[in-house]
Structure formats: structure tokens, C-alpha cells
Amino acid sequence: MSRHAQLRDHDVNPCLVETDASNKCMDDNNYNKDKCTAYFLKYRNCRRFWHAVMMQRRRNGVKPEMPSAEERKKMLESMGKPY
């Protein structure tokens, strides 16, 4: 699987929705970054949150280190969207 295909996989990229929203905002606003700041912050917060989850699972010896898309969905439903 190519790197691009991996990044489009919900099991690999937990922030795919935020990535797509940021890209769409940039397209819609003629690549004016100032108009997309809120989308960038959501993406950054998403990446930080899931990175922290991955690191904690790694420290605890849990495999796989990144929860599957289905497992992430259940986690978010139980805690509300933290980002």
C-alpha cells in the first residue's frame, strides 16, 4: 500500500475528517490560510490527542499502538469529542 493510500485509510489516519476539512477550506478560500485557522487548530488538536493515545498505549504495551477506526469511534462516543 502506497504512503498516500495509507493516509487515506481510516484505520491509519485518525484525523482524516479534519484533514479533508482543512483541505476543502483552503480550496474554497483560494488558499488564504487566515480564513482556515479554525480548521488547522482542529486538525492539530486531533493529531495531538491521538498521538497521546498512541504513546500511552505504547507505554502500556498495548498492540496495535493506534486503535482501529471502530475502536476510536467507540472511544470518542464514550468521552465526547475531546478536540
TrEMBL record:
GO terms for biological process: mitochondrial respiratory chain complex assembly. InterPro entries: COX23, Cys_alpha_HP_mot_SF. The keyword Disulfide bond applies. The keyword Chloroplast does not apply. Gene3D superfamilies: CytochromE C oxidase copper chaperone (1.10.287.1130). It is found in: Mitochondrion intermembrane space. Keywords: Disulfide bond, Mitochondrion. It comes from the Eukaryota. Residues 60-83 are annotated as: Disordered. PROSITE patterns: CHCH. GO terms for cellular component: mitochondrial intermembrane space. PANTHER family: COILED-COIL-HELIX-COILED-COIL-HELIX DOMAIN-CONTAINING PROTEIN 7. Belongs to the CHCHD7 family. This is Coiled-coil-helix-coiled-coil-helix domain-containing protein 7. It comes from Melopsittacus undulatus.
